[in-house]
Every structure is written in structure tokens, then in C-alpha cells.
Design goal:
The protein has about 190 residues and is mainly α. It contains eight helices and no strands.
Length: about 190
């Protein structure tokens, strides 16, 4: 048994043979725990580098998986992002706007790159290594018109529309970060 009650043997649903198992196979009602056990084993096989026929309870995650995750967080973009703290940015912009752009490039792009690395490493740890199976998005649901009834000169209908469009674009981009890391992780 796993920590959450799922069986260790993903093929245990087949023995003893029942009418449901003969008709529906693993997709039979009530066989979900064995189905998820198989999914977890397949994922752990990738992490451990051990093929299914050679699988054992003593298998461990390959060291290079952790090295890849560490390298992703220590990437140049993630390293540089902390140099662009808001107070440093304001001071440099006041005094050396042009020079700042030459030296540091686009700070927002560095933040996005660092955030993407953090999201992907978090997903690899939470979803693949710990197998917590939490359904979530990177960007939460958009606040439902929290500025609509504030009648201030700072928030116009046009600004709200721009905010909604910008939120949608950011949500689509950031939510895509949690997908596609597997190719690099298991290569």
C-alpha cells in the first residue's frame, strides 16, 4: 500500500478475475486505485531510470533528476532576477535610464524566466516526485470585477478592459509553464 491507500501492485485488479475485470479491464468501476498505481509506477520508472520488468521497492530517483532541477533554478536568468529589486530599479532609472537598459536588459523578462523556472521545478517536485496530485493553475481565477464600482479617475472602463486582456494573456502564458518540463527532466 502507498501512503494514501493505493495498492503497490498496479496489476492486482486482475486477480481474482471478476465479471467487471473481464468486461471492462482496468477501466472497470472501482478499479481507479489500481489505475492510479500504474500511472505512478510509470512515472517513477522514468524518475528512477528502471524499466518495468526490473522494478523493485528499492528503486530510487536518479541523482541527475535532482541535478537538473537544481540547474534549472540556478540558471543565469533566475540568478540575475534578484539583481533587479524594485528599490535598485527605481534608483538606477532615475539616474541612468539608458545605461541601465544597456547593462541589465529587460528586468520583467528576467522575472518571467525566473518565475517559469520556479513553477516548473515546483510542479516536478509536487506532481512527479511527491505525487500529490493537486489540481491547480499557476494563475488563479481572475478577480471578478473588483474595480468595476470604484468611481475614481484612475480606473476607467478602458483601463479595466486592458487589465482583463492583460490578465488573460498572463494567465495563458503562466499556466503553460507547468506543462512540458517532463521532456527535459526525463531526457
Amino acid at each position: 500500500m502507498a501512503y494514501d491507500g493505493k495498492p503497490y501492485d498496479p496489476d492486482g485488479w486482475a486477480q481474482p478475475a471478476t465479471v467487471e475485470s473481464q468486461i471492462f479491464g482496468i477501466d472497470a468501476p472501482g478499479f481507479y486505485p489500481w489505475l492510479m498505481s500504474g500511472v505512478r509506477h510509470d512515472l517513477f520508472d522514468k524518475l528512477s531510470g528502471v524499466l518495468k520488468p526490473h522494478r523493485s521497492r528499492n528503486d530510487e530517483i536518479q541523482t541527475n533528476v535532482f541535478e537538473k532541477l537544481h540547474a534549472k533554478l540556478r540558471s543565469v536568468e533566475a540568478e540575475k532576477a534578484h539583481y533587479a529589486q524594485p528599490q535598485v530599479l527605481r534608483a538606477r532609472r532615475r539616474h541612468h535610464d539608458a545605461r541601465f537598459a544597456e547593462l541589465f536588459g529587460s528586468a520583467p523578462e528576467r522575472y518571467r524566466t525566473a518565475q517559469k523556472a520556479i513553477v516548473q521545478v515546483e510542479r516536478a517536485i509536487t506532481d512527479d516526485i511527491l505525487m500529490l496530485g493537486i489540481a491547480r493553475e499557476v494563475v488563479a481565477m481572475q478577480p471578478l470585477g473588483f474595480l468595476k464600482f470604484l468611481h475614481t479617475p484612475y480606473v476607467t472602463a478602458e483601463t479595466l478592459a486592458k487589465m482583463d486582456a492583460h490578465w488573460g494573456a498572463l494567465k495563458a502564458e503562466r499556466n503553460s509553464w507547468s506543462k512540458g518540463y517532463e521532456a527535459a527532466l526525463y531526457a
